[in-house]
Amino acid sequence: MISECLVVEFQVTGDECPLADATRATGGTVEASPPLLREDGYTLLRFSTDESRVGDVLDADDRIRYLHRAAADGRDTYRCLSKERCVVHRLIDEGFLVETVRYVDGVERHLGAVVGQEVLHGVLEAAGEAVGVQLERISPLGEEADDGISTRWNLTPAQAEALRTAHRLGYFDVPKGATAQEVADAVGISKSAFLERLRRAQSELFDRLLN
User: Fold this and answer.
1) 142-150 long-range CB contacts below 8 Å, 24 or more apart?
2) Where would I find the beta strands (DSSP E) of the chain?
3) Helix (H, G, I), strand (E, B) or coil at 35
4) First to last CA, the chain
5) Burial zone of 203 (CB within 10 Å; 0-12 exposed, 13-18 middle, 19+ buried)
6) Is pTM beyond 0.70 here?
7) Is the N-terminal amide bond of 18 cis, ω within 30° of 0?
8) What is the mean pLDDT of the chain?
9) How confident is the model over 67-95, as pLDDT tens digits?
10) Contact (Cβ atoms closer than 8 angstroms) between residue 20 and residue 103
């Protein structure tokens, strides 16, 4: 049994998947759930963005099928099928346990976990064979972090990220270490979208703590 599990975050450049291309074309940001590969080769994608032009670009992309849009929390949430096999599937094949993928202006940030250094080396090697890859963060996965804040407190990944970033930048400090706009810029969303996520996340946390 391997006792070492690592949380890793790395940056991927040079991927030509539809989501990367759409953010590269619009300068927008996309936050995606792990893509699901079907037996027929199509990939199921679920993602959200506050840049409406992303949907227009994807709707015109021949690789995308059955694009569906729904608006919520000041963002557009999409579901669709893609003919393109995402590079993240190479990493999954090597043992990467992907949690979220963010696309910003054509650059991807993958967050997830690997079991042991040997698997990590295999994941990075697989990514490097297809695209540019740079390891951004690595840390041991503690028992309390196993479920993650989004699972333990019933938050969406976007809400959990807003809370983490706000806390890291000192938004909750007195006096504040960062303004709402500065936190929103760090997350890659608008100020109004950040404040809405923060409001919903805080409401969920308070409901669970005080009830």
Assistant:
1) 145/7, 148/99
2) 6-13, 29-32, 36-37, 43-49, 64-72, 75-82, 97-104, 107-114, 132-140
3) coil
4) 40
5) exposed
6) no
7) no
8) 82
9) 999 987 678 999 999 998 878 888 888 88
10) yes
Helices vs. strands in the chain: H and E counts, helices first: 8, 9
Q: Give me the amino acid identity at 154.
A: N
Give the separation between CA 65 and CA 82, rounded to whole angstroms.
6
Q: Report CA torsion sign: 65, 34, 37, 108.
A: positive
Cα torsion 101, 68, 197, 210 to 10°: value is -100
Phi-psi category of residue 153: left, alpha or beta, with phi > 0 → left and psi -120 to 50 → alpha: alpha
Segment 133-140 shows an average pLDDT of: 77
All structural domains of the chain, each given as residue ranges with its CATH number in brackets, are 6-140 (no CATH), 148-210 (1.10.10)
Yes or no: say if 200 and 207 are a contact pair by the CB < 8 Å rule: no
Q: How far is CA 106 from the centre of its chain?
A: 13
The helix/strand/coil state of 64 is strand
> Nearest Cα to 193, choosing from 181, 206, 177?
181
Number of residues written out for the chain: 211
Evaluate whether 200 touches 73 at the Cβ level (below 8 Å): yes
Residue type (1 letter), 161: E
